Amino acid sequence: MDYQLMFPSRFIKAADLRGKDVTLEIEAVEIEKLESEKETKDKGIVRFKVAKKALVLNRTNAECIVAMFGRLTEKWIGKRVTLYPAIWNDEPCVRVRGSPDISAPVTFELKLPKKKAKRTTMQKTTPGAAPPAEMESIDEPPADMPLPTLADNAANQ
């Protein structure tokens, strides 16, 4: 079990994907003020029809969605995106693999501030399975999720 699952959140984390691709239909795209330890920033938030958890957009994922569906976020509504767990800077993260709603792979130059442009391809994906139950509830961990014991913690030291 990934320890992140012990800390429920209203936002999708890599651990929520349980190591698998998950395809979700976009229901809304909004801007929300989010607080961090350092500051409060406006962030793009993507909400999905089935999952109660939303995705906080980082620049990479936003550029991937723009490459598939265009700059106008209202055109994203009703489109499906396939998310997958990845690693960035040695930390788990959520990335966009592609969509079942594109007719063919979409290749584009991913240009991020202070980074060299990188050729990136969004894949035509299959709809796949429903999201894990962990993504359908934001209130508490699933009832069947085993919580670590003191013995488990000692064994991992």
Give the helix/strand layout.
Elements: E1 22-35, E2 40-48, E3 55-56, H1 59-69, E4 80-88, E5 91-99, E6 106-110, E7 118-124, H2 150-155
Parallel strand pairs: 5-7
Antiparallel strand pairs: 1-2, 1-4, 2-3, 4-5, 6-7
Measured by DSSP, the beta-strand proportion falls in 35-45%
Strand order, sheet with most strands: 3-2-1-4-5-7-6
The residue-averaged pLDDT reads 84
Total number of beta strands: 7
Q: Which class best fits the helix and strand makeup? A: mainly beta
3D shape: globular
Number of helices: 2
- Which series of helices and strands comes N to C? EEEHEEEEH
Radius of gyration: 17 Å
Count of domain modules: 1
Sketch the major β-sheet.
7 strands, mixed
Q: Extract low-pLDDT stretches.
A: 137-157
Fraction of residues in helix: 10-25%
Q: Could you tell me how far the N terminus lies from the C terminus, measured between alpha carbons in angstroms?
A: 16 Å
Tell me about this structure.
The chain is mostly beta strands. It has one domain (10-131). The chain is 11% helix and 35% strand. The protein has helices at 59-69, 150-155, and strands at residues 22-35, 40-48, 55-56, 80-88, 91-99, 106-110, 118-124. It has a 7-stranded mixed beta sheet with strand order 3-2-1-4-5-7-6, with helices on one face. The protein starts with 21 loop residues before the first strand and ends with a helix. The relative contact order is 0.22.
